[in-house]
Request: fold
Amino acid sequence: MVVTGASTGIGDVSARHLSSLGFHVFAGVRKAEDAERARAAGLEPLTLDVIDADSIRAAVEQVGDTPLAGLVNNAGIAVAGPLEFIPVEEFRHQLDVNVVGQVAVTQAFLPALRKARGRIINMGSIGGRVALPLLSPYAASKFALEAITDSLRRELRPWGMHVAIIEPAAIATPIWDKSREANEELAKDAPPEAEQLYGKLIERIRAETAELGRNGLPPIEVAKAVEHALTADRPKTRYLVGRQAKGRAAAAALLPDRAFDRLIARTLGD
Reply:
């Protein structure tokens, strides 16, 4: 079993949970200290940067050509800010990590997965169904993963292989802190007009993000969905995790776009 982005948060908890179920887990990490922590937890650390072709090749060599029961594509980042002022290179980096990197890793491990009729789990988000303001890069990456998951599931059906996507909403993980720090750095380089035009909305989103980091669902709830997707006789194609995710999905399905826009604006205090 390979889990990418296993240094912290959902990836770390999912890797440990799968290990407790008896899987031999290769925990994808980038830093030596994260590798040591994974090893201490009984996982086999796998140095893996999803946007580095050499790193992916080395990871495949380490795993070897034995049948692979599953791949959990969890690695990801979150870029945020007004689309008008997000540097194009940052938008591109968002897609490189969250989309192209997932595809590259999947391609690399597919031969081993096919040998075991292994399953592929992509870590999406309710942001792949509902795009909130200031989160267009992140939402774009998660919308893309929805399409990739559907296409790949249909492509691999002849081999009896299953592909699913997990769609959590607010999960209490370090990604919120990392995202806030990175986006504050981006804001420093933004022109004055960004603050003038979007300042109030930016502050509301910052407050919302801080709240998510403090009071989101525990990552184990996502890990349990990953477990079901990997082990159930009749796995789902999509797993909405948490009441907030289910509520947003239902509202998006029921309300006309303009009405949903107004609901989101009211929620953000507009």
In short: The CA atoms of residues 48 and 58 lie 8 Å apart. The longest strand covers residues 163-168. DSSP finds ten helices and seven strands in the chain.
